[in-house]
Amino acid sequence: MAYFAESSVINLPWLLLLTFIGFLPSIIWLAFYLHEDVKPEPKKFVLFVFIAGMLSAFAAAVLEINIGCFITGECAKNGSQAIGDLKNATQFNGLIFAFVGVALSEEIVKYLAVYFTILRRKAFDEPVDAMIYMIVAALGFAAVENVFTVRLVASQGGGLNDIAAILTLRFLGATFLHTLSSGIVGYALARAFFSKRSHFILLVPSLIIAMIIHGLYNTFVGKTFDAELGSADFNYFFRSIIILLIGTGVALIILFQHLRQISAGHKFINVGDHAQEQLS
C-alpha cells in the first residue's frame, strides 16, 4: 500500500498511538457483540480468531492487487495504486473489481480465517458461535484496515481531529459493514454445520449475499465521495448507505434470535465435520 513508504517519517511513539487508535473501533464493536453472546466464548479462542482475521486482511490485499492487475492490465505495486488504476478503467471493470476483486475476496478470506482456526474445535459447540466467530474475524480484519487508514491520514499531514473524524466514519460504516456481511456468512455456516447439510450448499449463497451487500456499500461510498457535498447525488448515495447498514443490521438481529431459538434446550458437540446433538 502507498502509505508504507510515506509513513516512515512517523516516529515510533506516534506510530504506536496510531496503531492503538486504529484498533479502537474494532475493540468497541467486539465488546458489544461479545456482550450479546449468552454463553461467552473462551477468551483465548476469541483472540486467536481475531488475530487470524487480522492476517486475512493481508491475504485480501494480495488478492485485490492481483485481481486489479488482471482487470486493468496494469500491475500495481500496492493496493492504493490498484484503486487508482481502476479509476481509469471502464465502469463495468470497476464494478467487477468492487464486487469480486474487493468484496468477494474479503468475505472469503474472513471465512477461511474462521474455518482454519475454530471450526473443528470443541469451543465451537452452538449455532450462534458461527456468527460470533465470523464477526470476531471481521473485526480483526477491519482493525488492520483502520490502522493503515489512520497511518495514511497522519502521513499526509492529518492531525488527531482528522483521524478522529475518519475513524468515527469507519466505526459507523466500514467496520460495522464487515461485521454485518460476515455475520450473514456465519448464519449460513451455523445452519450447515449444525444440520449436517453440505457446507457448500449454504455457504456459497451466503457469500454471494455478503458480496452484494459489501459491494453495494463500497459503490455507494465511492459515489458519495465523488459527488459534491449537499448535491442531490450526494444525498441519494448517503441515504443509500444508511438504509443498507440499518436494513442489514436489523436482518442480522433477526438471524441471531433465530439461531438462539433453534438451539434452545439442545446441547451440541463438535465431531469434526459437523456438530451432533449431545444426548443426556
TrEMBL record:
GO terms for molecular function: peptidase activity. The chain crosses the membrane at residues 12-33, 45-63, 95-118, 130-151, 163-188, 200-217, 237-256. This is Protease PrsW. It comes from the Bacteria. The lineage of its organism: Bacteria, Candidatus Terryibacteriota. The keyword Transmembrane helix applies. InterPro entries: PrsW. Pfam families: PrsW-protease. Keywords: Membrane, Transmembrane, Transmembrane helix. The keyword Membrane applies. It comes from Candidatus Terrybacteria bacterium RIFCSPLOWO2_01_FULL_40_23.
